[in-house]
Amino acid sequence: MQQYLQLCQHILNNGHKKEDRTGTGTISVFGYQMRFNLQEGFPLVTTKRLAFRTLIASELLWFLKGDTNVRTLIAERNYIWNEWAFEKWVKSSEYMGPDMTNFGLRAAQDEAFANVLEEQMQLFNERMLADEAFAAKYGDLGPVYGKQWRSWPAANGETIDQIANVIEQINKNPDSRRLIVTAWNPAEVDEMALPPCHTFFQFYVADGKLSCQLYQRSADVFLGVPFNIASYALLTHLIANECGLEVGEFVHTLGDAHIYSNHIEQVKEQLTREPRALPTLHITEGKSIFDMTVADIKVEGYDPHPSIKAPIAV
């Protein structure tokens, strides 16, 4: 995973200081590309531990099922999208708990508040699972990735299943230059809890191998990008498995690639660590991508350095 570490170092060396919507501040570069040969191992960052099956695999399967409610993820102990649903809850007139204004930034700076936030988040998770009406109201994130991938709203009132369509086209016309899925829907961006960061991806078939290129408009390099790399490498494997192909490359093209100001020390710590051998991915062969569960996906030989914690900018 030297490509990822080189990106981190490139931003530290060449990044521009920029403000952002969260108020945290970043150092940022514009336009960067990494290439990963998926034949050489599964690109799961080894300089810190990532929860592959709990977070990465379950989130991708959530997208592929067209789901947009965090209740499904919480049931699988995946809390990666919780901050955005929790923010909707604490900003509502029904919330009567402690003041949660700017909870992400405050938790990073105030240990006592971080404990209060953890307690409130736990209560939120419990209620999401126990109260279906509450989950429907506060757990839905709007028309985010899963909705756009599986139910893009067409002009005639029907919906378009982009994932099913691209699989059909790979099978029927693998040389097509239109093997594209997009999550960026300008008509619905304002209804989303978070506009798509990984905006669209394109497949390419050559020599019996499937490659994928992702364009990511906004890339949180310390927290988000390692997950994005693994998620789209996994997606490439799943689509290749569905279409009877081998895997080729995952090409990751970044727009605004940034390190948040409160992640800089964590990035520097990660850069002191030596990358280890990449793990191997195993998925259930012959099973439809639409029927996959987390139990069908596993990595072997993953021996990373310990995890490094950092706050999420919401």
TrEMBL record:
PANTHER family xrefs: THYMIDYLATE SYNTHASE, THYMIDYLATE SYNTHASE 1
GO molecular function: thymidylate synthase activity
Active site positions: C197, C197 (nucleophile)
Domain Thymidylate synthase/dCMP hydroxymethylase residues, every copy: 2-314
Subcellular location: Cytoplasm
Keywords for this protein: Cytoplasm, Methyltransferase, Nucleotide biosynthesis, Transferase
GO biological process, one term: methylation
Main location: cytoplasm
Stored Gene3D superfamilies: Thymidylate synthase/dCMP hydroxymethylase domain
Gene name per UniProt: thyA
Pathway annotation from the record: Pyrimidine metabolism; dTTP biosynthesis
Binding site for dUMP: R21, R177, R178, R217, S218, A219, D220, N228, H258, I259, Y260
Catalytic activities: dUMP + (6R)-5,10-methylene-5,6,7,8-tetrahydrofolate = 7,8-dihydrofolate + dTMP
Family to which the UniProt record says this protein belongs: Belongs to the thymidylate synthase family. Bacterial-type ThyA subfamily.
Subunit annotation: Homodimer.
Gene Ontology cellular-component annotations: cytosol
Signal peptide positions (record): none
Alphabetized InterPro entries for the sequence: Thymidate_synth/dCMP_Mease, Thymidate_synth/dCMP_Mease_dom, Thymidate_synth/dCMP_Mease_sf, Thymidylate_synthase, Thymidylate_synthase_AS
Pfam families: Thymidylat_synt (PF00303)
EC category name: transferase
Superkingdom of origin organism: Bacteria
The protein's role, per its UniProt record: Catalyzes the reductive methylation of 2'-deoxyuridine-5'-monophosphate (dUMP) to 2'-deoxythymidine-5'-monophosphate (dTMP) while utilizing 5,10-methylenetetrahydrofolate (mTHF) as the methyl donor and reductant in the reaction, yielding dihydrofolate (DHF) as a by-product. This enzymatic reaction provides an intracellular de novo source of dTMP, an essential precursor for DNA biosynthesis.
Listed name of the protein: Thymidylate synthase
Binding site for (6R)-5,10-methylene-5,6,7,8-tetrahydrofolate: D220, A313
Enzyme Commission numbers on file: 2.1.1.45
